[in-house]
Structure formats: C-alpha cells, structure tokens
Specification:
heterodimer; A: 421 residues; alpha+beta; two-stranded antiparallel sheet; B: 235 residues; alpha/beta; Rossmann fold; 5-stranded parallel β-sheet; 4-stranded antiparallel β-sheet
C-alpha cells in the first residue's frame, strides 16, 4: 500500500530546510533553553556533590553540645559562633580513645579583616580533605615553622594581595573593623594554600599556641608584651578549644565513638559525622537550587512553545501544500504526522545542539568552576540522563505539535483537494 | 488490459455535504479510455465536488463511480487514497508544487508515493530519466530546470512541471482543474496542446475542467456540468 511508503520524514526535513531561517531560530531557542537546563542541572549536582564533600577526610567533628548543623556551621564553614568551648582534657580523652588515628584541634574567635582566624596544628593541612579525597596543597610557602607563623587561604591571599613573608595582625572577635587588635604580636605569612572552593579559602590559619599567647593578658588585650623567645619556652597548651576533627583507623568505628562522645560524662560534648550533617544542611539550603531547576525547566517549555508558534504561523500558508499532498495520495493522518514530525525534528535538533553546547561549555569552564567556586563537575561526557532529556524534549515537542497538526488534519479533511488561498 | 477499461463511469450519483440538499446528482457520465474531455463548469457548479468524488477524496451518498474499471464506492478511504496515488494525476489551477522541493523532486514525487507509479517509471527507464524526458517534452530544458527551486519558476513553467508530475508513471486518468486560468492566451494554448499530446503518448484519459468555453475546441468532446448535474442547489 502506498500509504506506508509515504516519505513523511524526508518531506518534513525538506520542509524545515526550506524555511532554514525560521527553523534555525527555533532550533536555537530550543538549544539555548536545553543548554540552560542541562547547565543548571550539571552545576546543581556538581555543587551538591562538592558541598557534601566540603570536608571529606574527617570521620567525626567534635564540639560542645548544640545541634549537628550548628556545630558544622561554625567548625567547618566558620559561620556563627560556638555555644561553648570544650576543655583540653576532653580533647585529650577523645584523642586517646581506641581506633583514633589522628585529631586536629581548632580554636576560633579571632579574625583578620573579616576573615576567620583558625588556631590549629600543622596536622590540619595534612588531614583536611575535600572533594573526593583531595588534600590541601600550598600554592606558595609551607606550613607553620614558628609560633607566630600564619597560613592564608587562597581567597584571603587573592583579595588582600598577600604573599609569604608579609606580616599581618589578627583582631579579636569578628567583623572587618575591629576595635581590639592584637597588634603587639604580628604574624608572618609562611604559606598560601591553593584554591579549594571550600571555607578553607576564606580562612587564616595560625598555631594553636599563638592563639593562647596573644590572649595571655586577657582576651581583650592588644597581645602579650613577653618576648617571643620566652613565649616559645612556655607551655602554651590551651585550656579550651572550639572543636576538633577526628580521623579513625576504620570508618566503622565512627558510630561507636560518636555514641561515646555524646554520652561523655565529664562535659556535654557532641560528635557529628560530617557527611550526614552536610546532607542535612543541604536539605535546608537546597531549596534555592530546586527553584533554579524549576525555572530552567520552564525555560525549556518556552523553547518548545516557540516551535509551536513557528508551526502555527506557517499553517495557513501551508494549507495548499496539504491539498497537494492529498492529491498525490497522502492520507489525512499523513498530514498530521508530517507536522508532528517537523515539530519533533526541530526539538531534536535543538536538544542535541543544546546538549553539545552544554558539554562544550562545561569542558571549557570546569577548571574555572573548580578553582573559583569549588564546584567539581563529576562527569564531562553526555550520559543516559542527557539522552533522556533529549528524548523528553523531542517527545514533548511532538505532543505540543499535535495541536497544529490536528488543525491541519481537520483542514485537510474539509479541504480535500481544494486549494484554499 | 486494465487501461482498456473506461476511464470513468458514473451512474445515479448523488452527493450532499452533511445531509444537506444534494449538490450533485448525475444520472450518467462516462469517459472512454484515453478520451480527452472538456468539462465546462462555472464556479459554484459543483465541479470541485465532482473532482473530489472522482479522485476518491469524497464519497457519494448514492450511486456508483468506476474509475479505470474500479468501483470507488466499494473501497475504504485508505484504499481510495492509495488508488489515487497509483492511477490518477491531478493538476490544479496554481500552486501545484511543493515549495521546498526542487523541480526534479516535485516531478518524481508520485513515484515515491506509489509503487505502481515507480514501477511504470522504471519500465520507462527510471523515475529521474522519465521526469527529465517529460520536462523536455513540455518545453523545459532539464539541465536548466531540474534543480531549480519551484518558487523561482513562472506560473506557466510551474503548470508544465505540474503536468509532468501528473503524467509520470503513466496514470490512467488526468484531472485538470482550471490549469490554464492563470496563463495568458498564448501559453494557455501551448499548454493545452502539450498536455493533450502527452496524455495521448502515455495513453491517459484527460478530464479538463474550465469555466472558459472557448477552450472546448481543443478536445475530443465537450460537456457542460450544468447539463449533467440535475441537483437544484449550487455548492
């Protein structure tokens, strides 16, 4: 039967090519909308994965008892303040527990021109990991060698123009304009960290002992007048720290140690597993990300509607084309299929181009995304998900195209071979 | 041989749209195989309806329509569409060509729709060769026109391309609906002569419908639709 051989696809293709100008614009609209959608999706997933890997080498974070998210916020993100400090004795007790491979204490509370100062040990640079097990590296210099040495994060160095060898002064409390500066004890920058895209970039690291030293004469003083040699000879082990990170020999020990810490009788402590707390936190701030995805989806819908517009506006002038096709033996449903096929072909072309653009863009910009925003795009080649999106966009266009196609079908039935001009 | 069957036999035909009054009532209307018939019909005389019925796009309420020996009224819509693709050539008043296909592909289109037309063209040396031959016969140099955009052609050239398309693959009956009304007098006569010649060469019957009775002399026989149609209402 001739109907089965009706060369619909080739006609649809020719018809599109004939209107190359409009078709190209329509395809471009779809391509851009698909690019936007896939781009948002990729960066969204990348951001989520990167966020949940803000800190990855650490099995437990221990601090004073509050809420897990709160502990995470102040100890890792340096947002807000600790409700309480914890004693050095408690720290020592947990550090000495079985299966504990290492601990890194942090002491917070001071700042430098708006950036948090973290008092810690050189172990911080060894054990802190982010992303999928990436360690901190020095872009310049090295870790602390002396009491009043400092290491700055990448953003601090970039924004304030710091290099190794420069002297800086830390201030008490937070805020870029502080009234109490510990200017009696300036620090020397010995190292600048490479960008990580984590809060590490926005931190200034000093030794735990130095934090103790500059507060020797009361926490609101300008520092200590004691000479550095004498300070070095002193036991500057702190009485209190803000929190500490714990690494275990085996991750399966995490739950048991967490329970032990949470029920520690001497002091109300709290241990959180970073991944769990990060996922909790993301569920709060992830709402914005979901909104973005919804907006991107609507942009794709706009792209599809532009196909509809292009086909609807051409429908009247194409009425006589339908009469010719009918005269040549086309069945009315062929007219329907022709228009649905055109709609689907336009969307397919747009979606494929959009996917290509997305991955070309990601390939081009992923180093920048990683360096500046710490967003690691996990997959740089189109996958099943993208294939599904292309299919979905094409199918949606076919469904939308059914509207004008139905109109053409009705026309075709009514007009028959009569050419309406 | 099926071509020796009469091109058209209509008996006791009655047709109306949506159960209104009859717009067509024809007791008898025959066209012999290979006959070239002039059918005069003013606009509103029901000629578009009649052509729709002969082409199998419309289906009558009563009566019989036999085209090239086959009864359309016993066929379903799909079969009539296939029959039209295989056995009929249609030429409209204007806008005959698909604007997005070049001349050559417009002419060979029926061969892609109907295996029978493709076979007939293949017997004559292939669809492309046959299309070129027809184009040449109709006075358009294939070398110049084959790849031309249909929209770049004059109306007269378009009508000749349409004639070539109607004739390719040897259909038994050509329906021409006012094909010359957009042409000037000289090209009109030339077009009719070419069409007649090619119908004769391929053995196709021709039903040429026009409101212009001055063209009647070109044809074997002339009829007036208003004499055939006894329905009182005009469509």
């Amino acid at each position: 039967m001739s109907g089965a051989r009706f060369p619909i696809l080739s006609l649809a293709l020719r018809s599109i090519l004939n209107r190359a100008g409009t078709a190209l614009l329509t395809i471009l609209t779809v391509a851009i909308s698909v690019t936007l959608f896939l781009g948002v999706e990729k960066i969204r997933h990348g951001a989520r994965a990167s966020f949940e890997n803000t800190i990855s080498g650490v099995d437990l974070i221990v601090g004073a008892r509050s809420s897990p998210v709160n502990l995470l916020l102040y100890s890792v993100f340096h947002i807000g303040d600790a409700t309480n400090n914890i004693t050095w004795e408690s720290y020592q007790a947990v550090a000495g527990a079985p299966n504990v491979a290492w601990t890194v204490p942090v002491s917070l509370g001071d700042s430098h021109r708006g950036y948090r100062v973290v008092g810690t040990t050189p172990g911080y640079f060894e054990h802190y990991e982010y992303g999928s097990g990436r360690s901190l590296t020095f872009a310049e210099g090295a870790s602390f060698a002396d009491l009043f040495d400092a290491v700055v994060g990448a953003e601090v160095a970039r924004e304030l123009g710091y290099e190794t060898g420069q002297e800086i002064v830390v201030a008490h409390g937070m805020g870029s304009v502080s009234f109490v500066e510990h200017d009696a004890n300036p620090f020397t920058i010995t190292g600048v960290l490479a960008p990580t895209g984590t809060p590490v970039d926005r931190s200034v690291f000093v030794t735990l002992e130095a934090i103790e030293a500059i507060h020797l004469e009361g926490s609101t003083g300008r520092g200590t007048a004691l000479p550095a040699d004498q300070l070095r000879a002193m036991d500057l082990a702190p009485e209190q720290i803000t929190a500490f990170f714990v690494g275990l020999d085996t991750p399966v020990a995490a739950l048991r140690l967490q329970r032990q810490v949470n029920t520690y009788p001497e002091e109300p402590l709290q241990a959180v597993i970073p991944g769990v707390a990060l996922a909790q936190l993301w569920s709060v701030i992830g709402a914005a990300e979901r909104t973005l995805a919804a907006v991107a989806a609507f942009v794709v819908l706009t792209g599809l509607v532009s196909i509809l517009t292009a086909i609807l506006t051409s429908l009247n002038e194409r009425r006589r084309e339908m009469a010719i096709l009918r005269a040549l033996g086309a069945r009315p449903h062929h007219v329907f299929i022709l228009l649905v096929a055109e709609s689907a072909l336009l969307a397919l072309a747009g979606a494929v181009i959009g996917t290509g653009l997305t991955y070309a863009g990601l390939a081009g910009f992923s180093p920048l995304l990683e360096a500046r925003f710490g967003i690691l795009i996990p997959q740089l080649l189109p996958g099943l998900y993208d294939l599904a999106i292309v299919g979905l966009v094409t199918a949606a266009a076919a469904v939308l195209g059914a509207g004008p196609a139905w109109r053409a079908y009705r026309h075709s039935l009514a007009d028959g071979m009569t050419i309406r001009v | 041989m099926i071509e020796s069957a009469p091109a058209l036999q209509i008996a006791d035909l009655r047709f109306n749209y949506r159960h209104g009054d009859d717009v067509l009532a024809i007791a008898r209307f025959d066209v012999r195989a290979g006959e070239r018939l002039f059918l005069r019909g003013a606009s509103g005389s029901g000629k578009s309806t009649l052509l729709g019925l002969i082409a199998g796009i419309l289906s009558p309420q009563a009566g019989r329509i036999e085209v090239l020996g086959e009864d359309l009224t016993t066929m379903g819509a799909a079969k009539r569409d296939a029959f039209r693709a295989a056995r009929l050539g249609v030429i409209f008043q204007m806008f005959n060509l698909l604007p997005y296909l070049p001349v050559g592909r417009n002419i060979t289109l029926p061969c892609r729709f109907s295996p029978e037309r493709a076979r007939n063209a293949a017997d004559a040396g292939g669809a492309d060769a046959e299309a070129r031959r027809l184009l040449d016969r109709l006075g358009l140099d294939p070398a110049e026109f084959w790849l031309k955009r249909s929209s770049a052609l004059s109306v007269g050239q378009q009508q000749r391309v349409a004639a070539a398309r109607a004739l390719i693959g040897r259909p038994g009956l050509i329906l021409a609906d006012e094909p010359t009304s957009a042409l000037d007098a000289d090209s009109r006569d030339a077009f009719i002569d070419l069409l007649k010649e090619e119908c004769a060469a391929s053995g196709a019957a021709l039903i040429f419908v026009s409101h212009d009775s001055s063209l009647a002399d070109h044809f074997d026989r002339a009829l007036d639709l208003s004499d055939l149609n006894t329905a009182s209402v005009t469509a």
